[in-house]
Amino acid sequence: MMEKEMAAKTTKGNKENRFVKEQPLRHPLAVVTLNGNHLKINKQSYQIVVNKQEALSIEVLRQKYDPYLDQYDFLVGDVSSEHLRLKGFYKDNVQATIDRREQTIADYLMEYCNPGAGYFILKLLSPVHHYRSTNSKKQSPSQYRRRKKVKIRSTLQHNFIIKKRKSSN
């Protein structure tokens, strides 16, 4: 009986830390290779623009990289409490919300990253994705298919009757 009480006390005193346990992967591991200042992730080439405090760890990047991030032109990774957080940004000439554009990377680092924490910025060199640019011209109206003009008859007969309301005096 004494052993059971001791075991119960130790489990109550030791709260389980959920972050210490290894998290299950929700996507396949990325293929990451580093060649000097260039990084290749899943057949996409990136240039390392900034690597503050040597925050770029290839092994951690392999585990955290999600194929969803392939669509972005810039990747920002910041390390906080030994956890890597990745966020993607588009070039400024792409139709995207303003908080996802290249010009807001500095704001993101100031507002959402811990002060003094290490971070890195990767720039996509060989894009595989296609998106609409804000600089592209719209199609001219002559390229659209023209519709036939249909005249509306003014002598159209209605098959309903409009009754006047009885006035309440």
Explain what the structure shows.
It holds the Pfam family YutD-like. This protein is 16% helix and 22% strand. With 169 residues, the chain is of the alpha+beta class. The chain has a domain at 46-127: 3-Layer(bba) Sandwich (Hepatocyte Growth Factor). The radius of gyration is 30 Å and the shape is elongated.
Strand % is: 15-25%
Q: Name the assembly state.
A: single chain
> Order of SSEs, N→C?
HEEEHEEHE
Tell me what the CATH architecture of the domain at 46-127 is.
3-Layer(bba) Sandwich
As laid out across the biggest beta sheet, the strand order is 1-2-3-6-4-5
Name given to the CATH homologous superfamily of the domain at 46-127: Uncharacterised protein DUF1027
Shape: elongated
Q: How would you state the average pLDDT, rounded?
A: 79
Q: Main beta sheet: strand number and arrangement?
A: 6 strands, antiparallel
- Let me know the number of strands: 6
Low-confidence stretches: 1-11
By CATH reckoning, the class of the domain at 46-127 would read Alpha Beta
